[in-house]
């Protein structure tokens, strides 16, 4: 009988030890980023934000267990993205995966939906990313939200007649739709829309058409090297109207382009000079680690990782396991989160409302803020 | 773990199907094509479009995909195969470039750069392909059927004619063989079979966009054939397995920083290619002396 009691006690202790062990386990999240190939630069940027957030969460000690990020290389290709995503879900058993790039995001979203794994984009801004199911979240405002922030400012500056040059893909078409809807509401008008193929690099003809439109402002809806060429060639071909664009204009190549000087663009409001503890810690630690100021991409992936930390802490407090379903439920319940840059509220479709800012290209690396647009 | 392995196996089968069908023209007819990704893409887009607008039945989708891909292959082969060797490579490169542009721009069918998703699952009477295991069985069956079809063809008079043309086009002509016709038919056959891989891929991924059908994919499939061994039955299979597994296996190397895995993969991949070409130019399953046998 005594032997039985001893065995029972040992068993109970072992069970307790196991439970403590379970709490002390790693809290893993996955990341499917381009870590090699021509887009590896983005993988480096994204991962530097995610790593810093994980370090901060671990240092704070509020999370039971150590947070770690498991990376899989997508090479920005859908097939490799799906292989990486499947490994994260079925081998590493992560309930939360960071991603970027529209093609990869869409491909991995189907795995996320099927396996009830949360997939979070914090890089792409195409509005079609809002339609990938309830397990796919966007931790940054999509471009339609940026257009809504910009239009009232344009009208207020008496730039009411807007001509649009847009890349002919879902991203560009979404901006057409948004400007067609928002400009008349604000008292402006879309006087012309000129599409360019995604691979085009010659815009002399487009510039001639823009001159004929006699607009007050020209909105450039493109990305990558193309937006750089559009801005340059418009000016080279005598277009003197105000140039306008969105957050893709925040890259250093454009900020230092003489022809782009004076361009207005919208961007997520992340005031790196802010003194709130979250932003200050993020900026200071990033500078200490990398010797330079963080970009918006870094901040966005920091926020997306911090979001997982916040949700995990909330679920641990309730004694619930970290599953995709519970994370989704917790996100819906908490809904507003402290991010670097300010409070962010999730909309029912998994995208966020966040404060925006209108900036102008002034030749400095980060542009000059001309207006803050509150989230509404 | 099982799901991950199944996922890898399905994608290995899809790529092996592509490699086997490319090897049919490359290894046995000496026709080097850089447009195989386009036939793969045609299969995928036909599957997505038909499933989205008409039916998910494979009894309709597979023949439709094979027919359209065969017609595009015919359009490439008829003019291009009247010339020899490198001219076909140039023509196929042209088709690859045009194909990618069409995939990107024909938005009503391909969804443009954004691609197509949200189409219903593939089905056969009494069967629906939704689980990963069902896809694995389907992709293995397709691969085996294609291997059998190619093997049968290679052991027929048509196969012997192909190999005769590969070894000496002039000699085959002198023997009265209709070289242009035989080469054209082989390209049409290969294109049609490559489309089946596209059908499996589209339904498995539940998403199709142009990024999967670029020149990089055509080059990767060609690398699978060359590394595995051109003109051999098992070579393309070995090549596909190897090139699909290298990236996945490197992510398990202990002590390797996770952010460096991608770069290490590229180095291993490049070094393996160079070493193979030095010590076994005929590919892993091919002869030591290289070249098409």
From TrEMBL, chain A:
Domain Leucine-binding protein: 27-362
Coiled coil (residue ranges): none
Family, as annotated: Belongs to the leucine-binding protein family.
Name of this chain's protein: Branched-chain amino acid ABC transporter substrate-binding protein
Organism of origin: Comamonas serinivorans
Biological process (GO), any one: amino acid transport
The entry's keywords: Amino-acid transport, Signal, Transport
This protein's record includes keyword Transport: yes
This protein's record includes keyword S-adenosyl-L-methionine: no
Cleavable signal peptide: 1-24
UniProtKB/TrEMBL annotation, chain B:
GO molecular function, one term: branched-chain amino acid transmembrane transporter activity
Membrane topology: Multi-pass membrane protein
A single Gene Ontology CC term: plasma membrane
Keyword Transport recorded: no
InterPro entries reported in the protein's UniProt record: ABC_transp_permease, LivM-like
Bilayer-spanning residue ranges: 6-25, 32-52, 58-80, 87-104, 135-154, 185-207, 219-246, 267-287
Keywords: Cell membrane, Membrane, Transmembrane, Transmembrane helix
Record bears the keyword Transmembrane helix: yes
Pfam family membership, one: BPD_transp_2
Domain of life: Bacteria
Annotated localization: Cell membrane
Major localisation: membrane
Protein name listed in UniProt: Branched-chain amino acid ABC transporter permease
């Amino acid at each position: 009988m005594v032997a039985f009691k001893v065995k029972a006690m040992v068993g109970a202790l072992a069970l307790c030890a196991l439970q403590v062990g379970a709490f002390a386990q790693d809290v893993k999240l996955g990341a499917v980023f381009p870590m090699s190939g021509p887009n590896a630069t983005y993988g480096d940027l994204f991962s530097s934000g995610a790593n810093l957030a994980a370090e901060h969460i671990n240092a704070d000690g509020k999370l039971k267990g150590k947070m770690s990020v498991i990376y899989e290389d997508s090479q920005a290709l859908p097939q490799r993205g799906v292989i990486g995503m499947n490994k994260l879900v079925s081998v590493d058993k992560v309930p939360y995966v960071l991603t970027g790039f529209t093609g990869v995001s869409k491909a991995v979203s189907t795995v996320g939906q099927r396996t009830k794994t949360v997939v979070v984009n914090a890089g792409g801004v195409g509005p079609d990313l809002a339609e990938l199911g309830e397990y796919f979240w966007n931790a940054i405002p999509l471009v339609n939200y940026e257009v809504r922030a910009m239009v009232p400012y344009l009208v207020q500056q008496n730039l009411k007649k807007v001509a649009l040059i847009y890349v002919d893909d879902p991203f560009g078409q979404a901006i057409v739709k948004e400007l067609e809807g928002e400009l008349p509401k604000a008292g402006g008008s879309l006087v012309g829309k000129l599409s360019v193929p995604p691979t085009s690099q010659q815009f002399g003809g487009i510039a001639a058409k823009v001159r004929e439109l006699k607009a007050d402002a020209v909105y450039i809806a493109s990305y990558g090297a193309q937006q750089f060429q559009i801005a340059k060639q418009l000016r080279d071909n005598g277009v003197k109207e105000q140039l306008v664009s969105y957050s893709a204009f925040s890259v250093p190549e454009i900020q230092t382009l003489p022809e782009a000087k004076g361009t207005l663009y919208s961007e997520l409001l992340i005031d790196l000079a802010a003194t709130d503890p979250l932003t200050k810690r993020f900026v200071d630690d990033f500078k200490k680690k990398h010797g330079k100021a963080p970009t918006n991409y870094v901040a966005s992936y920091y926020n997306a990782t911090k979001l997982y930390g916040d949700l995990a802490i909330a679920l641990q407090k309730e004694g619930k396991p970290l599953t995709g379903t519970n994370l989704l439920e917790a996100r819906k319940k908490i809904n507003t989160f402290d991010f670097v840059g300010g409070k962010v509220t999730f909309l029912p479709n998994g995208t966020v409302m966040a404060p925006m800012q209108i900036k102008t290209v002034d030749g400095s690396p980060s542009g000059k803020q001309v207006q803050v647009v509150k989230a509404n | 773990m099982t799901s991950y392995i199944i996922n890898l196996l399905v994608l290995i089968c899809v790529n092996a199907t592509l490699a086997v069908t490319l090897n049919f023209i490359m290894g046995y007819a000496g026709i080097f094509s850089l447009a195989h990704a386009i036939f793969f893409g045609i299969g995928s887009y036909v599957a997505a479009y038909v499933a989205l607008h008409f039916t998910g039945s494979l009894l309709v989708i597979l023949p439709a995909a094979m027919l359209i891909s065969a017609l595009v292959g015919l359009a490439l082969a008829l003019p291009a195969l009247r010339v020899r060797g490198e001219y076909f490579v140039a023509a196929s490169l042209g088709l690859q470039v045009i194909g990618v542009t069409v995939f990107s721009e024909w938005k009503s069918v391909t969804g443009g750069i954004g691609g197509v998703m949200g189409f219903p699952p593939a089905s056969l009477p009494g069967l629906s392909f939704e689980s990963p295991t069902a896809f694995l069985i389907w992709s293995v069956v397709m691969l085996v059927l294609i291997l059998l079809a190619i093997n049968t063809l290679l052991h027929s008079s048509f196969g012997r004619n192909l190999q005769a043309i590969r070894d000496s086009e002039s000699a085959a002509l002198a023997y009265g063989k209709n070289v242009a016709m035989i080469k054209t038919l082989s390209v049409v056959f290969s294109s049609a079979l490559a489309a089946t891989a596209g059908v499996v891929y589209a339904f498995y991924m539940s998403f199709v966009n142009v990024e999967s059908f670029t020149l990089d994919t055509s080059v990767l499939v060609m690398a699978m054939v060359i590394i595995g061994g051109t003109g051999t039955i098992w070579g393309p299979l070995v090549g596909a397995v190897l090139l699909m597994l290298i990236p996945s296996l490197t992510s398990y190397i202990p002590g390797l920083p996770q952010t460096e895995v991608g770069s290490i993969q590229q180095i291993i991949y490049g070094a393996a290619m160079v070493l193979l070409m030095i010590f076994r130019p005929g590919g892993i399953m091919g002869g030591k002396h290289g070249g098409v046998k």
